[in-house]
Each structure stands twice: as C-alpha cells, then as structure tokens.
C-alpha cells in the first residue's frame, strides 16, 4: 500500500501513539535529557548568561586536542579492523552450514556483552609480565587498548552484516557466475553493494562504542591513553572542572548524534531489502572458503585467549595452584580493602540488574509498540523516527555525563533520589533501553498489518488486538531482550561508579577498586571476581542465544 502524504491521521491513531509514547518520553526526559542538559548548560551558561567562551578555551588546550584526536583515531582504526575481520567471519557463520556453528556464533557474540571491567582485567592479565602474552610487552600501550576494542566490538560487525547476508537471495550471485563473472567480480558488483548499508551501519555503531569506551580504556590506558570519556571522568572527579567537562560532553554529543543519523539511515536501507528464508540460504563449505575459515579460526582463538588467561590466573595463588582467590571472595580483602565482601557485591549487582531489566523492558516494549506503527501521515512517521532516534541517544552519550548529571539534578523534591536505592537501577536501565528497543522493534515491524486488521474486523477491541497479535508474537524476543538487558546492567560501570553507595557497591565497582589497590591478594581477588561476573554473563547469553533472536542484526 502506498502511503499518501498529507493524509490526516485518524484521531484514535494519534491518541494511541501519544499515550504509548508518554511513558518512554517522560522516563527519557526526566532521567536522561534533564541530567545531560544540566551538564551541558554548565558549559553554555555562566552567571545565568549564555557564554560560549568556554568552548574556545577548552577546545584550544593542547591536551584537549590530543585527546579528541586520540579518541577519533582509535575509534576509526578499531572500526576498520572490525570490518576487515568481521566480513569473512560473517560469511563463514551466516552463509555456510557446518557442525558446531551455533557454538562458534556464541563465542563471537560473547565478548560484546562481557562487562567492560572484565575485558580490561582480562587483557591486563593476558599482557602483563608473566601473562600468556607478557613477552610482547604490550601492557599499558595503545596496542593493548586497540586489541581490547576489537575484541569487544567485532561481534557487532559479524552479527549486523551476518544476519543481513543470511537473508539475501543467492540467485543474483548465481546468475552472475553463470554469465561468466569470477568470484572477485561477483563480490564487488553483486554482493558488496547489497551489504553496503549493513556494513555502514555496523561501522557506525562500532565507531560509536569505541569513541565512548570508558571501562576498557580506564583499566588498560589510565590517563596516558585517555579519551574524551575518561577526560570527562577526570575533570569531574579529580579537578571538579564541570565547565570543561560539559564542553567535552557537548562535543561528544554532537559526534554521537551524527553517527546515529548515519546508522539510522543505513538501517532504514537494510530494512527495505528483500529477505529470503535463512534456512535455505546456507551451503556446505568449499575449497574457496578456506581463507575465510582460516580468518574465523584465528579470530576465534584471539577471542578465547583473554578469557582463558583470566581463568588460569584466577587459580594461581601465592602458594601455587588452588581456589584461594575464590575463597577470599567471602572476605573484604587484605587490610579490609573493601567495605563489603565480594559475594555481597555480587548479590547487589544481581538485584539491581533485575530491577534495571524490569524498568528497561516496560519502557522499551511501550516505545517499540509505538515506533512499529506505520501511520499514513508523513509528519507522524517522521515524528516516530525522531522518537526512535531519541531512545538511541543513551547508547552513545557519556555514562559519566549521565551519572554526574544525576548527582546535580536529582537532589531536590520531587526528584530527590541521590540517596535512593532506585537511582542505580534507573541509570542502568537507560543504558539497556536501546538494546531492548533494537531487539523487539524489528519483530514488531515485521508483523503483517493485515493480521491486526483481520482481528479488528472480527470485532476485537484494540486492547485485545494488541494482546493476541503483537504481544503474542513478541514473547520470545522480549525474553531475549530481558537477557541482554540483564547482562548489560550487570556489567555497567560508568554511571554506576558515580552513583553506587560505598555500603552497596556493585561487582564491577568492587573489581575496579581491587585492581587499583596494592597487594597480590587483592589483585587475585579481582581476577576471581571477574571470572565469576563473566560466568554469570555467559550463562545469561547462552540462554539468549538459545532463543535465537539476532539482536546485533537489529543495529
């Protein structure tokens, strides 16, 4: 059906969209736009007057220019490497069919959902003196950060490009081969143009994640190889220079919006492409697939190596091999380094992650139901697209900015929440919300509108159509979204490091504190705690992978 531009939408449609969007907009407005806006205002206003001199002052600093250049260069380089490695892996995992494929897919996806602190600790364990790759002397170098960023984000390219590639009709490629085109020509003239939107979308998202990386860069690079994100952290926590921090937050926000626009445009092109039954799209490996298979196996070994190093190091104690580091998790560390034992912090993390998941699911499901509608009015469609973009902003805006914004805004009635236990779950729900929407929305947009129309013609009221059509179909994706939201909330570190109370810390905050303290016993506890946190995350993601919902493909 061709949409007619200028058609006035039905009143019932407008009312349903307004009511459905009200809760998500209120949530994002109060807990994202307000705190971030307050931080931004500190860079734009001085003594109640608009003053842009802070931008010229901060952006003219040699350190600021160096950090901006380092942030952009490392994000661009990591994105390029992820695309180069991700394409052959996507071909192997989504165009071929072989035994053990599902397990290999799970291994590739696992790093993306590991807590950033765990990834940082794993690479420090791998690269430091005495580690499996300690002889390379990469600990504390720019190369270590790059390896961790690639480890963390190659799954985005593999899943985004792979799910698109899996659904493409192979007959165009076969026709080109019949006409005499070689494999290289078929790739550049037939396959690559059809994959270009997915590649652009994946590269944009990887650039966004790398440019806003916090935990990995803080653990591996410290202040020597800082980024805009870590600089905002230092300016707010150590120097209390909120004006300079807000200037960098504005700069980062501009970059994030630009990248999200590119990703959204590419995602829209991908949605319009024809898809086929993926069960018929695979084939057995051939001799010509050996280079891609070799790249896949090498990268899989690279992805497994930091986790293996982390596990082995957790079993080494001052007295040799054993479980001493795990037994110490029931204590507060040497010289009472912690306020509470590690197991208590894990319990806090689990409870908070459950709360954050519940919040993100309610908000994300309501938002997805609204965005999935396709009204005739062009203006209403543009409004829904804008609403979708707003919900993606928490994905790329500095978690440090959000966390500190909470502290300076949510301190007066009726939102005096600084000492409230709900503040950390709300912050984690903001981080998980975009993933929930991107998991559920593709399924809702794929529902044939005639199913809703048929139910309505048969006399079902709108609430029953919603229950029997939309919610019935979206059940499994909601379970998958809850798994991803739980894993993301469990490992969130940026905003939580500002907001968690000393007597109720989360496990990532405790791990970061332990690795910053002297003593081998404390570091051993940090390693063991990282293994425990990674193990819980792996269990959740294994369940999600079993549900077979391609979340990364939604990006």
UniProtKB/TrEMBL annotation:
Gene3D superfamilies from the UniProt entry: MetI-like
BP GO terms, sorted: transmembrane transport
Domain ABC transmembrane type-1: 68-263, 346-544
Pfam families assigned to the protein according to its UniProt record, in alphabetical order: BPD_transp_1 (PF00528)
Highest taxon, organism lineage: Bacteria
Record carries keyword Cell inner membrane: yes
GO cellular component, one term: plasma membrane
Keyword terms: Cell inner membrane, Cell membrane, Membrane, Transmembrane, Transmembrane helix, Transport
PROSITE patterns (UniProt xref): ABC_TM1
Chief location: membrane
Compartments, record wording: Cell inner membrane; Cell membrane
Transmembrane segments: 12-34, 67-94, 106-127, 142-162, 195-222, 242-264, 290-312, 350-372, 384-410, 422-444, 478-499, 523-544
InterPro entries named among the record's database cross-references: MetI-like, MetI-like_sf
Topology of this chain in the membrane: Multi-pass membrane protein
Family to which this protein belongs: Belongs to the binding-protein-dependent transport system permease family.
PANTHER family in UniProt: INNER MEMBRANE ABC TRANSPORTER PERMEASE PROTEIN YDCV
Protein name according to UniProt: Iron ABC transporter permease
């Amino acid at each position: 059906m061709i949409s007619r531009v200028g058609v006035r939408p039905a009143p019932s449609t407008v009312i349903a969209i307004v009511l459905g969007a009200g809760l998500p907009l209120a949530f994002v407005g109060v807990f994202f736009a307000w705190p971030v806006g307050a931080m931004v205002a500190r860079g734009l206003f001085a003594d109640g007057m608009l003053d842009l001199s802070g931008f010229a002052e901060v952006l003219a600093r040699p350190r600021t220019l160096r950090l901006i250049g380092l942030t952009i260069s490392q994000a661009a380089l990591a994105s390029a490497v992820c695309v180069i490695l991700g394409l052959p892996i996507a071909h192997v995992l989504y165009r071929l069919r072989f035994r053990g494929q599902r397990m290999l897919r799970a291994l590739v996806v696992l790093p993306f959902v590991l807590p950033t602190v765990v990834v940082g600790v794993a690479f420090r364990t791998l690269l430091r003196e005495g580690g499996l790759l300690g002889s390379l002397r990469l600990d504390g170098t720019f190369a270590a950060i790059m390896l961790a960023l690639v480890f963390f984000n190659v799954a985005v390219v593999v899943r985004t490009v792979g799910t698109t590639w899996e659904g493409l009709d192979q007959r165009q490629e076969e026709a080109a081969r019949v006409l005499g085109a070689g494999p290289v020509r078929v790739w550049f003239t037939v396959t690559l143009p059809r994959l270009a939107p997915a590649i652009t979308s994946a590269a944009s998202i990887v650039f966004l994640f790398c440019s806003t990386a916090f935990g990995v860069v803080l653990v591996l690079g410290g202040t020597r190889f800082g980024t805009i994100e870590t600089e905002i952290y230092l300016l707010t926590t150590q120097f209390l220079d909120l004006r300079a921090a807000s200037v960098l937050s504005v700069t980062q926000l501009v970059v994030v919006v630009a990248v999200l626009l590119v990703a959204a445009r590419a995602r829209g092109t991908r949605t319009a492409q024809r898809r086929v039954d993926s069960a018929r799209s695979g084939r057995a490996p051939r001799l010509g697939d050996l280079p891609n298979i070799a790249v896949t196996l090498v990268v899989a070994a690279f992805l497994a190596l930091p986790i293996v190093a982390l596990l082995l190091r957790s079993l080494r104690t001052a007295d040799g091999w054993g479980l001493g580091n795990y037994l110490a998790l029931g204590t507060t560390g040497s010289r009472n380094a912690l306020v509470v034992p590690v197991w208590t912090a894990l319990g806090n993390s689990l409870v908070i992650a459950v709360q954050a998941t519940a919040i993100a699911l309610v908000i994300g499901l309501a938002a997805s139901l609204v965005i999935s509608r396709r009204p005739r009015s062009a203006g209403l469609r543009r409004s829904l697209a804008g609403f979708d973009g707003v919900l993606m902003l928490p994905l790329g805006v500095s978690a440090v900015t959000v966390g500190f914004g909470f502290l300076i805004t949510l301190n007066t009635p009726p939102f005096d929440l600084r000492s409230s236990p709900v503040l950390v779950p709300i912050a984690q729900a903001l981080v998980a919300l975009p993933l929930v929407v991107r998991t559920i929305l593709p399924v809702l947009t794929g529902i044939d509108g005639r199913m809703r129309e048929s139910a309505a013609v048969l006399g079902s009221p709108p609430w029953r159509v919603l229950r029997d059509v939309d919610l019935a179909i979206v059940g499994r994706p909601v379970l998958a979204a809850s798994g991803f939201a739980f894993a993301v909330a469990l490992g969130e570190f940026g905003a939580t490091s500002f907001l968690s109370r000393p007597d109720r810390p989360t496990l990532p905050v405790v791990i970061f504190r332990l690795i910053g303290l002297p003593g081998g016993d404390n570091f051993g506890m940090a390693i063991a705690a990282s293994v425990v946190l990674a193990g819980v995350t792996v269990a959740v993601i294994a369940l999600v992978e079993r549900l077979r919902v391609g979340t990364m493909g939604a990006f």
